[in-house]
Amino acid sequence: MIDKQINIAFKEYTSINELPDADKALCNEAVKALDTSHSPYSHFKVGAALQLKSGTILRASNQENVAYPSGLCAERVALFNWGANHADDAIITMAVTAQTNDFDLLKPITSCGACLQVMAECEKIQNTPMRVLLYCINGPVWVVDGVQSFLPFLFFEDRLTH
What we know:
Mean pLDDT: 94
Distance between the termini: 33 Å
């Protein structure tokens, strides 16, 4: 038997004001994306923004549907838009934020497992990791370099891609 250990690493900033200007701007783009959220059932808005290598910013938000499984998270809306329209322009950084009037958010929200898997595949497609900024409005920001820290046991089977 071999005893193995997995460690994750991330940086925590106490507020957006501690971030470099480019990261602040991307977090603010994720906040703007909240305005397009269609979340009449959960009342939980999520916004995402992608900074591409060219400088292009893509914004997206969660889209709910009365048939609950038919909705889609903001991260996947953004990433599928990237894959369909900008796959030759690598994602450098992704910012994600959330907002609800039902309770106070005191820490950043994290992406669901399905979103993390899609993020991982996007990293594989572009052959480079992306930085992820998880931003709690009026609270901390968590910065992670690459999806591996979120989902250490990513599902990949290289023989499926041939």
